[in-house]
Amino acid sequence: MTFHRNLAETASLGLYRAITTLIEPFLGQHLKKRLQRGKEHPSRWREKQGFSVTARPNGKLIWLNAVGLGEVMALRGLIIALHNRDPELKFLVTSSTLVSAETFAKNLPPNTLHQFLPLDSPAYTRRFLDHWKPNLALWSEQDIWPGLVFQTSHRNIPQALVNVRISRTSFRNKTFVQALFRATYKNFSLISAQESQTAIALKTLAMREDIQIDGALKPHCPPLFVDPKRQAEFSTSTIGRSIWLAASCHPEDEDLALKAQRLLLAKGANPLLILAPRYPSRTDDILKKLNGLSVRVHSRGELPTAETQIYLADSFAEMGLWYASSEQALIGGTFSAVEGHNPWEALQLGCGVMHGPRVGNFATDFELLQQANACFAVHNAEDIVAHITSPPTRGLERFERLQHANRSKISNLTDQLLKLIRA
Predict the structure, then answer these.
(1) What pTM, to 2 d.p., does this model score?
(2) Any bridge partners for residue 292, and if so which?
(3) Fold assignment, 228-405
(4) Residue 95 is inside which H or E element, if any?
């Protein structure tokens, strides 16, 4: 059985390497087409080919990778914990999306650089590792490049897989190429899951028992950056107003938030609703829904007035400002197949959390907050109105106690990671 298993792993890895080598000549053209469509950074797109114009910092370098916005922002708490233990450490964070790079740039932890992750072709990843020569590689959540993992391991660079969360759909997909993932997971000295279901899935996929559970990294992150000048301008223009937010919203969230806002206005209240879409490119579609309402649009350089009923916050990397300006936030994606976004960012800036019934992407997080009575579930516009017009709860105080109680988990993980780099 072991022989056949090893044979399958070797074959799957060989096939993967062959495919990535064959497609390598076409990847440059692929990136150029994405650049023309505005999907790559105009001056940094070649980082995805492993090139870098930034010098490697002196000293020990920890490289951390996360694909998208939520994943890369979650790394900040871990970086700060590692920095606090050893201020001489340097950090390189890689991600794949434009918005993750733009937002992370405004929220950089100490001693930290950002680079786009190279595509998983042998030449690109070799070029990347030749330049950066990390002393430790940390992969976050569930998206990993097998080729880059094996090249890193071949150079005797220790690796860990942290903050892992695997959905049922992702688990099913990975089982179809289990031999490849089993071979890849063997290269990690430490694998840390967010919760028990993911730990079980990892034990099945990796066929190893040493999977530990350390909880999610997101609760340990510092608050999002808030530009003090922008905050002062916004506060002046909204002085005396009650403000609530639809955060990282999708069409279903917007529709419900707008219905609730119209109900509030019909009751004679005069709150300001900030609509912050997950994708600011949807501005024109959203504006079509706002007939009959007094609207100001952030991308036009407008600020709210006393008469403004909807403020369309169609920008990247300013969620910190919108959370800090609002009393309550309806977390986007919780009324659609998106299955929710990060609730911790709102709470960290003193903004209460409302959410819909669909929270699969953050099920453990919302369950933890619900147990502490630090968030509020809503099912319709009437629920939103009732919560907004109710006396303030002590949810934020409960959140602070919950955050304090979970600090030991990241402390233990930090100790283990530092042992890897010193081994």
Answers:
(1) 0.89
(2) none
(3) Rossmann fold (3.40.50)
(4) strand 90-95
